[in-house]
Design a protein that fits this description.
Layout lengths: L3 E7 L2 E6 L7 H6 L6 H20 L2 E2 L8 E3 L5 E3 L6 E2 L21 H5 L5 H17 L9 H10 L5 H4 L7 H8 L11 H12 L3 E5 L2 E5 L31 H13 L16 H12 L66 H4 L24 H4 L3 H4 L5 E5 L2 E4 L7 E4 L2 E5 L12 E2 L4 E8 L6 E7 L7 E4 L23 E3 L2 E7 L4 E4 L2 E5 L8 E2 L4 E8 L6 E7 L8 E6 L3
Parallel strand pairs: 9-15, 10-16, 17-23, 18-24
Antiparallel strand pairs: 1-2, 3-6, 4-5, 7-8, 10-13, 11-12, 11-14, 14-15, 18-21, 19-20, 19-22, 22-23
Length: 580
């Protein structure tokens, strides 16, 4: 849950001071379905269920659960926000009376539409709508008018998700059916049960648990096919969700019409909204957002420090680097074939060179220790030109082998060392240290990879990665130094490279002056910048691309664009003005 640091009043103005969540909203990611595979979208829904369980356990309803109110960190952790219309499950404090509806119509529960007294199961229905949308990429009640929407929610069953997605695992159908039951007695009775079923369907196993929230989870092994539905481009634009309705009169009227048409006893009329102070609104929003069960009594001059909900371990979207093509491929990327040493060439116990202990920086807690697991057999050899390394180097025994579930941080020295993932150049070590504009490398379970580190005057460092869902570490920090000597593979680009100027999960738009400036990516001329002023150029990743902007009579501008699912940016907006 998004943390609230402070709440108060200054010169008659009420304020909330909250944490900044950089990765955009879930609704932006659903608008570009290729940016997240199915299991990642379901995992995010499971994290939302855990967050709601945390709030419900403390007596707070959300009442406006929708993708736009789920923010994502750069590591794709879910953060539930906007408890502005939240309600305490007990006590007299409330923002609206029974009989008055609040929320976004497309995500409302039947009892919310009818203005009945609500409990935790209304949030479960709303999350079921979000889950249905995340799985099928369409809403369960796709009405064109408010009247039709109300009728569908009250009386119609949504289309079978299996009919919309042929590759849908059978476990998801019963979960969705139970979430979207019209009668709340037939739904999940608490959000924790829903979260547990989603985790079971994903094949995840919790590593540790705190009250209401799971701290670290392992992703399922294997790859997954994403639906071929044509995506809507993700952007930083305001979400196109239905607006939040704070006065339920219109919804109440529509609900009454629908009830009458179906010969169902009409809902009770919505009484007038209780009087209340704006301070109460701010207090409830702050309390729920921070997961605290106490009202902040600003009217009495008191404030309380909200309790911060434990964060879940990062679970970013998948993506590794395919070969660059023109035009570049979509943002969702397939895993390249692993290029690792044959198993027979790896000793029973693989340790880093003994000199590492002297030259490597002090390792903090969580830094990786090489595993003794041998690397798998290498795939068919490619030419040196194709993979950026000679075949003799591919057969060389790795200097270290690590077993990890997903995330890899590079802390190799020198920091300018060039990084080659499965033979493809993807940037320098400084690009993948998760700080100062850098990001983490993310891998899917059940794959194997080789990283080669190269720098002039140093011997190449070879590291094999064994990606397994049962690995002890979810994230490792590779902190090894290169040794003086002669490299046996291509060294990569020359010169000192700066930090990335822009970050994205794939899409990039250009706001360049002059607009007809040419765009060259990694040495390949693609066209004028104006071509991607509204429709984005999709860059492959993980990689750091060298983008050069040039125009006659102007000085060229060179920028570096980091592409990674852990970048935290839905798209990059490249704003540059070329000097004459």
């Amino acid at each position: 849950i998004v943390t609230v640091f402070d709440v108060g009043e200054d010169g008659g103005t009420l304020f909330l001071a909250m944490e900044y969540v950089q990765g955009g909203s879930f609704s932006q990611r659903l608008a570009d379905p290729d940016s997240l595979p199915l299991h990642e979208r379901v995992r995010i829904a499971a994290e939302v269920a855990e967050a709601l369980a945390h709030a419900h356990d403390r007596g707070v309803l959300h009442r406006d659960v929708k993708p736009a109110n789920v923010l994502l960190t750069p590591h794709l952790e879910a953060k539930v926000t906007d408890f502005g219309i939240g309600k305490l499950l007990s006590g007299d404090t409330d923002l609206t009376s029974t009989g008055q509806m609040v929320g976004s119509p497309a995500y409302m529960s039947p009892e919310q539409i009818k203005g009945d007294k609500l409990d935790a199961r209304t949030d479960i229905f709303s999350l079921g709508v979000v889950l249905y949308q995340a799985i099928t990429l369409r809403k369960p009640f796709p009405a064109d008018t408010l009247t039709t929407l109300v009728y569908q929610i009250l009386h119609e069953e949504p289309p079978d998700p299996a009919s919309l997605r042929q590759d849908l695992p059978e476990e998801y159908g019963p979960i969705l059916h139970k979430c979207l039951a019209k009668k709340r007695e037939e739904r999940y009775q608490n959000a924790a049960e829903l979260a547990a079923d989603l985790r079971h369907a994903l094949g995840d196993t919790p590593m540790s648990r705190t009250t209401g929230l799971t701290a670290t989870w392992m992703p399922p092994a294997g790859d997954e096919t994403v639906t071929s539905e044509t995506p809507t481009q993700a952007s930083g634009a305001v979400d196109g969700e239905s607006p939040t309705i704070t006065a339920g009169r219109r919804m109440g009227e529509e609900a009454a019409k629908a009830e009458k048409a179906a010969a169902v006893p009409p809902a009770k009329g919505a009484p007038k909204k209780k009087s209340g102070t704006p301070v109460g609104l701010v207090a409830i929003g702050a309390v729920v957002l921070a997961g605290v069960v106490a009202l902040v009594a600003l009217r009495n001059g008191g404030t309380k420090t909200p309790e911060t909900a434990p964060e879940a371990a990062p679970t970013p979207a998948a993506g590794t680097a395919p070969e660059t093509a023109a035009p570049p491929p979509p943002a969702t990327l397939t895993e390249p074939a692993p290029t690792v040493a044959p198993a027979s060439a790896v000793p029973a116990t693989v340790e880093p060179p003994t000199t590492h202990a002297k030259k490597a920086p002090k390792q903090k807690a969580g830094k990786a220790v090489p595993t003794s697991e041998p690397a798998p057999t290498a795939p068919p050899k490619k030419s040196a030109a194709a993979v950026g390394a000679p075949s003799a180097q591919a057969a060389r025994t790795a200097d270290a082998t690590y077993k990890v579930r997903r995330l890899v941080k590079l802390n190799v020295s020198p920091i300018q060392a060039r990084v080659f993932l499965d033979g493809k150049y993807i940037g320098i070590c400084d690009d993948w240290d998760d700080s100062g504009g850098g990001a983490l490398l993310y891998f899917r379970g059940g794959t194997n990879h080789r990283i080669r580190f190269a720098y002039p005057g140093y011997r190449d460092l070879l590291v094999d990665l064994v990606i397994r869902p049962d690995a002890a570490d979810d994230k490792i920090d590779i902190a090894l130094p290169l040794q003086a000597g002669k490299g046996d593979g291509p060294p990569g680009p020359a010169g000192d490279l700066k930090r990335p100027d822009y970050r994205t999960i794939g899409p990039a738009v250009f706001r360049v002056e002059p607009p007809d400036a040419s765009v060259t990516v990694d040495g390949k001329l693609l066209g004028p910048a104006s071509k991607w002023e509204s429709e984005p150029l999709n860059l492959d990743g993980p990689a750091v691309h060298e983008v050069v902007l040039s125009a006659p009579g102007h000085e060229p501008v060179s920028v570096r664009v980091l592409v990674a699912q852990t970048s935290g940016e839905a798209r990059a907006t490249i704003r540059e003005k070329l000097k004459k």
